[in-house]
Amino acid sequence: MLSSTPTPLIPTLTLFISITIIFFLFNPSLLPTTHRSSPPIPLSDELSDLSLFSRATRRAAAKSRLGTTNQNPKIAFLFLTNTDLYFAPLWQIFFDNYSALYNIYIHVDPTVKITPPGGVFQGRVIKDLHRTYRGTATLISAARRLLATAILDDSSNFYFALVSQQCVPLHSFMFVYNALFRQNVDSVSLDRLSFIEILSNESILPDRYNARGKGVMVPEVPFDKFRVGSQFFVLTRRHSLMVLRDRKLWRKFKIPCINVHSCYPEEHYFSTMLSMLDPKGCSFYTLTRVNWTDSVNGHPHTYYPPEVSAELIYSLRESNSSYSYLFARKFSPDSLNTLLDLSEKVIFKD
Question: What InterPro entries does this protein's entry cite (predicted)?
Answer without folding.
Answer: BC10-like, Glyco_trans_14
